[in-house]
Specification:
With 160 residues, this protein is mostly helical. The chain is built from four helices and no strands. Bound molecules: heme C (2 copies). One heme C (HEC) binds next to helix 2. It holds the Pfam family NapB. InterPro entries: Multihaem_cyt_sf, NapB.
C-alpha cells in the first residue's frame, strides 16, 4: 500500500515538472491581436480604463437580436446570488417606479421555452450580454454591414 502511494507521488511530481517546462521559445513574437507587438512572455502596461458613458442615449442596434448597450453607468452595481441591482430598476415590478425599461419577455423564458414568473436563470447575469458604452475606437478591424447596407449594395449591384 505504502509503495503504491510512493509511486503515485513520484509520478505526480514528474508530471508537474514536465508540465512546468515551456515548450515554446521565450522570445517568440506574440500574435498581433488586441495586444499588439512584443513577445509571448513580455508583460505590457495595459491602457487605462475609460470612463463609462452616462448620457442616457440609446445606441443603434446592428440587428434586432442584439442586446442593447447600457446607456448609463453601472460601476458598483452588484449582481450575485443574494441580490441583483439591475432588477431593482428593470424588473416587471419596479420598472414603473423607476421608469427603466422592463426586461423583455425573452428574459422570462427558460431554456425549455417555458415562460417563468420572474427572470430566467440564464438571463440573471445581465452583463454577460449587456455592456456599457465607451467612446473608444474598435480594438480590431471590423467590416460588419447591417441589413440596410447589405440590401443597398445588392440593389445598386443589380442595377448595373
Ligand atoms: C437606478 C435604476 C437603474 C439601475 C440600477 C439599472 N438601470 Fe438600466 N436603465 C435605467 C433607466 C432609467 C434606463 C433608461 C435610459 C436611461 O435613462 O439611461 C435604463 C436603460 C438600460 C438599458 C437600455 C435599454 C434599451 O432599450 O436600450 C439597458 C440594456 C440597461 N439599462 C441595463 C442595465 C443593467 C445591465 C443594469 C445592472 C448592471 C442596470 N441597467 C441597472 C435604470 C436603471
Ligand atoms: C443571454 C443574454 C442576456 C442576458 C443575460 C440579459 N439580457 Fe437583456 N437583452 C438581451 C437581448 C438579446 C435583448 C434584445 C432582444 C430581446 O428583448 O430579447 C435584451 C433586451 C433587454 C432590454 C430591452 C427590453 C426592451 O423591451 O427593449 C433590457 C432593459 C434588458 N435586456 C435588461 C436586462 C437586464 C436588467 C438583465 C439582467 C437581469 C438582462 N437584460 C440579461 C440579452 C440578454
Amino acid at each position: 500500500m505504502k509503495f503504491r502511494v510512493l509511486t503515485l507521488t513520484l509520478l505526480a511530481v514528474c508530471g508537474l515538472a514536465i508540465a512546468a517546462e515551456p515548450n515554446y521559445p521565450l522570445d517568440a513574437p506574440a500574435p498581433d491581436g488586441r495586444r499588439a507587438g512584443g513577445t509571448i512572455t513580455q508583460e505590457f502596461t495595459p491602457p487605462p480604463l475609460r470612463d463609462e458613458e452616462n448620457k442616457d442615449l440609446k445606441r443603434e442596434r446592428n440587428y434586432p437580436e442584439q442586446p442593447p448597450t447600457i446607456p448609463h453607468a453601472i460601476r458598483g452595481y452588484q449582481v450575485d446570488i443574494n441580490s441583483n441591482r439591475c432588477l431593482a430598476c428593470h424588473s416587471r415590478a419596479n420598472s414603473a417606479r423607476t421608469q427603466a425599461p422592463m426586461i423583455s419577455i425573452t428574459h422570462f423564458t427558460d431554456r425549455d421555452s417555458q415562460t417563468l414568473g420572474a427572470v430566467a436563470p440564464r438571463r440573471y447575469f445581465c452583463t454577460q450580454c449587456h455592456v456599457v458604452q465607451h467612446d473608444v475606437k474598435p480594438l480590431v478591424k471590423n467590416d460588419f454591414e447591417n441589413i440596410d447596407q447589405l440590401l443597398y449594395h445588392e440593389n445598386t449591384q443589380n442595377q448595373q
